[in-house]
Amino acid sequence: MGGGGNMSSQTSKNNPLKRMPTSKPPFTIGDIKKAIPPHCFKRSVIRSFYYTARDLLAVFVFYYIASTYFHLLPSPYRYLAWVTYWIAQSLVFGGLWIICHECGHHAFSDYQWVDDTVGFILHSAFLVPYFSWKYSHRRHHSNTNSLERDEVHVPRIKSELPFLKKCMNNPVGRTVLPIMFLPLGLPLYLVCNFTGRHYDRFACHYDPYGPIYNKRERLWIYVSDVGVIATAYVLYRVALAQGLAWLVCIYGMPLVLLNCFLTLLTYLNHTHPSVPYYDSSEWDWLRGALCTVDRDTGILNKFFHNGPNTHVVHHLFSTMPHYHTEEATEAIKPVLGEYYQSDNTPFYRAFWRESGECMYVEQDEGSHDNGVFWFKNKL
């Protein structure tokens, strides 16, 4: 099985658009776990805090340089310096965001209270409701690529395709709409469940009484809202003291670019012509978890703590810390074989391709797999 898996994996790598199998895998989650060195599942609170402290130090170094020296530069160089700062700071923000994400998965340490404390503080700083996102994201992992129950990046079937999505079926739409989508994707998802699961009424991550959450979770949604409100108040006081333009330059623009990167990378990990979606007649957890794609995004892999290029193993074992996922990914490839999907297409080209080709999902005409849906784009 191992040799055949290597061959299938190599074939998939050479042709990333080749569809993955939809039959039930010849292996179990237990088989996959056995292939991974046991130390990969161990969480180190010291090592996790090291990465947190390293990223925070970089944030403050960039902040100090920008706030201390940029005003001394002549005009042309000052503008270039600010743009460089926005990009660099947003990438460091991305590393901290991944650490928040790990806290929500209990992958930061062996202590739930430590994970929740760190995640709550850091996520609130990015205006993200920590517990609200933690609960909905947990359901995403429990229902990956289920058309009825997945929580985010849920595609529409052709008959339900919204008008704006149809407008993307031309070069202008494929250029303009994705540019609008990148900075707004995450905020719209949090505020109005954009690209999320269909609910019978309005769904919002800031609403304790919304359909996303149950009664036991309601208190923690309030706590999450308090964290976001506290951050907003601090930002308001900073704007009064330093000026709105200063706040936008120091914090606002890096946050906008962070949202762009997060939307782009999560979209690419979950949107690809080679992976199917399933309805309730066909879906099961393991096949759904395998319907994610590892993307080699070059230097972005390092800034985002290998989140983009190890997403498959993350969906299989979400409590695994990021500093073990590369080793674990290499270990599971022979077991997964053709069920492992990866794509090394440059992320900007991949985003252009997927935004045009992955418009809706539909069953193949004449197929006997009635519960299997594939991305298509012909209107």
Automatic annotation (TrEMBL):
The chain crosses the membrane at residues 56-73, 79-101, 172-192, 219-238, 244-268. Signal peptide: none annotated. This is Omega-6 fatty acid desaturase, endoplasmic reticulum. Residues 81-343 form the Fatty acid desaturase domain. Residues 20-60 form the Fatty acid desaturase N-terminal domain. Belongs to the fatty acid desaturase type 1 family. One of its GO terms (biological process) is lipid metabolic process. It comes from the Eukaryota. Keywords: Membrane, Oxidoreductase, Transmembrane, Transmembrane helix. It comes from Capsicum annuum.
